[in-house]
Predict the 3D structure of the following.
Amino acid sequence: MKIEENDIKDLLVIFPDVFGDERGYFFESFSLERYKGAGINFNFVQDNISKSRKGTVRGLHYQIGDKAQGKLCQVIKGKVLDVAVDIRFNSPTFGKYFSIELSEDNHVQFWMPPGFAHGFSVLSDEAVFHYKCTDYYSKEKERSILYNDPDLHIDWKVDKPIVSDKDMHTKLFKNINKDFVFPL
């Protein structure tokens, strides 16, 4: 397993060891001991899977307080652009985002701890997206930022985004509360 950091502190890109032959491939998608050794020292309590069609944009979502979530993301089928926005006030990268393509072919995983808003767009005909969460879903603690917020300038790499009504009617980045302060 290889792990890369990037320009935003605490976000990790994980390249698992994939073993392939004429039958297909095998890789270990999660090992508590190995991931804790890599600095992802969180307990995962919920796994989520979504299936979406090309052009779908989901996000930007996060949870606050005692229900804040870290997420370990990967794609089982298809290809997505996965996006994390730093919402930690006082962070040197506050308001910046990092994006990466995750696919069934590259097997890349993306780790974001609490303090990031998360979203993704579907680049293939359809995608099955899997993510492990460090806390349970909470409707009361869920928050969102408008996916096409003019202050964030996210290039979702889709021409005509398909977005839920819920995600179309949410806060602008400049109006979020100081729910996370850097360092956490």
The longest strand covers residues 46-53.
